[in-house]
Design goal:
Elements lengths: L1 H15 L12 H27 L7 E2 L2 E2 L1 E4 L4 E3 L22 H9 L4 E9 L6 E11 L2 E8 L1
Antiparallel strand pairs: 1-2, 3-4, 3-7, 5-6, 6-7
Length: 152
């Protein structure tokens, strides 16, 4: 009897525990990696100028809803952003999330010694207006940092 009651309470408490999952409409981690790799491959095939032009297009091949790729150089200057064209050309090393985390600087610093990686930070989810954890995957190619992310 005690064992059944314990199991029932454990199941009930587990059901109350929040599950961290991708936000509705957000790409999965595997889709984020695939999108970055696809952008790097596009760069290899088409060169810098054509790739940056494509990555800056709001309706381009690398900008479907929340699934998009942006590019920064190793100094923190944004070279392509299909959703926020106003940040292109700006040095974004000092950009911080709501907790003061300088996530672009963190990516740039890591990119100088690692070929790829992940970073997490807080950001307003454009689909629901809620501040959520965003996780971004980045990869370096030819001195450029290709980045895409998703909300958890």
């Amino acid at each position: 009897m005690f064992k059944r009651a314990f199991v029932a309470v454990a199941i009930f408490l587990f059901s109350l525990t929040p599950v961290i999952a991708a936000s509705p409409g957000a790409p999965s981690r595997n889709e984020v990696i695939a999108q970055v790799n696809k952008a790097v491959e596009f760069y290899r095939s088409n060169g810098r100028e054509k790739t940056l032009a494509e990555l800056n297009r709001r309706d381009g091949a690398f900008a479907q809803g929340m699934d998009y790729v942006d590019v920064h150089d190793l100094n923190g200057v944004c070279l392509a952003h299909p959703k926020s064209p106003d940040v292109v050309g700006q040095n974004r090393l000092e950009v911080a999330d709501m907790h003061g985390k300088h996530f672009i600087k963190e990516i740039v610093d890591a990119a100088k010694t690692h070929p790829d990686g992940w970073v997490t930070y807080m950001r307003e989810n454009p689909n629901n207006g809620e501040v959520e954890h965003k996780i971004a995957y980045w990869a370096v190619h030819d001195g450029l940092i290709f980045k895409a992310g998703t909300y958890e």
